[in-house]
Design a protein that fits this description.
Keywords: ATP-binding, Nucleotide-binding. With about 350 residues, this protein is α+β, with helices and mostly antiparallel strands. It has nine helices and 22 strands.
């Protein structure tokens, strides 16, 4: 089931366009308020756009003069809250989907039993939602969504409310059940994108900033959000013969893949890992090729290292280095990175 999304929601300043291929999972990424959940609401029929079209498997669901009601779209939404009916048993909750489409009681019960077994929750069939843990309830919610046999599965941060010890098991479950389904997932977790999504669409300010195969976007990002999401530094500017020049005039030297260097003067980005950055309180002596004067904005512990953030840039250093340099929010510092550690490509 393929999907075409090309919609505008004027009040929320959202204007997005992308496609989902048959059997593909697309992750919508972006900062809070970017328009991701609005897009899901339009797909599910919970919000009517001001303009545009939604086409699912060749059927126009939304368009000029066309509006298919949510219950008739055969889409299913899995949100942070499982939203199980408290007065029904787990089995009855899962059977509700097929029953609502006219399936007989016996067939609906068989479908519910099948999907509960698929999500390793068969033993929960007789319980009520109040008797379930958060992870168990979300497993049941997955089974309920799949039992409805949706043409398109919509997931809005389904693991955001789960304990960190429970989320990995649900992520593994979703990886298995999404393998041959058409789905769109909103997430703020890089592992969700890497493990669940075939492609990602990055939305910033209500517009698609970039899109492409997950591995490509997260290894060679072209937007500031995608770079930070992937844990990389990104500097935008215009290409020069040996790097990227920022709007403020600073030249960042770097290398491009053979035959892949953007033409001089064209939009380009320089990308490098935080672990490749050395931090100094004073500009180092000599003439390092890339030295960026920054102001520290945040210190973020990451296991054995500390991520020193300076606006959109970051450097990973040891705890001992932070103490030795006396780094703190507001400190002046210099980020130094070798040109060989900087990848340059077209934006």
């Amino acid at each position: 089931m393929s999907a075409l999304v090309d919609v505008t929601v004027t009040e929320r300043d959202v204007d997005v366009s992308f496609e989902v291929a048959d059997g593909e999972t697309v992750a919508l990424l972006g900062p809070n308020g970017a328009g991701k959940s609005t897009t899901l609401s339009v797909l599910g029929g919970l919000l009517r756009p001001d303009a545009g079209r939604i086409v699912l498997d060749g059927e126009e669901l939304t368009g000029p003069g066309t509006w298919v009601a949510p219950h008739a779209r055969r889409t299913a939404l899995l949100a942070q809250d499982p939203l199980l009916f408290p007065h029904l048993s787990v089995l009855e909750n899962v059977a509700f989907g097929p029953r609502s489409t006219g399936t007989g009681r016996r067939a609906a019960r068989a479908a519910a039993e099948h999907w509960l077994a698929e999500v390793d929750a068969a033993e929960l069939a007789g319980r009520r939602p109040a008797q379930l843990s958060g992870g168990q309830a979300q497993r049941v919610a997955v089974a309920r969504a799949l039992a409805a046999d949706p043409r398109l599965l919509l997931l809005d941060e389904p693991m955001a409310a789960l304990d960190v010890a429970v989320a990995p098991a649900l992520r593994t479950l979703l990886r298995r059940v999404l393998a041959d389904r058409t789905a769109v997932i909103v997430t703020h977790h890089v592992l969700d994108a890497l493990l669940l999504a075939d492609r990602v669409v990055v939305v910033e300010g209500g517009r698609v900033a970039e899109q492409g195969p997950t591995s490509e976007v997260l290894s060679r990002p072209r937007s500031a959000f995608a770079a930070r999401f992937a844990g990389l530094n990104l500097v935008s500017g215009v290409a020069t013969p040996d790097g990227v020049r920022r709007p403020d005039g600073l030249l960042l030297h770097g290398t491009a893949a053979t035959g892949d260097h953007p033409p001089p003067g064209s939009p380009a980005v320089a990308v490098f890992r935080p672990s490749a950055v050395a931090v100094h309180r004073e500009p180092p002596g000599g003439s390092p090729r890339n030295a960026l004067a920054v102001v520290v904005t945040e210190l973020e512990p990451l296991g054995d290292v500390v991520r020193v953030r300076a606006g959109e840039l970051a450097a990973d250093v040891t705890v001992a280095s932070v103490a030795e340099l006396g780094l703190a929010p507001g400190s002046d510092a210099t980020f130094v990175v070798k040109a060989t550690e900087v990848d340059v490509y077209a934006q």
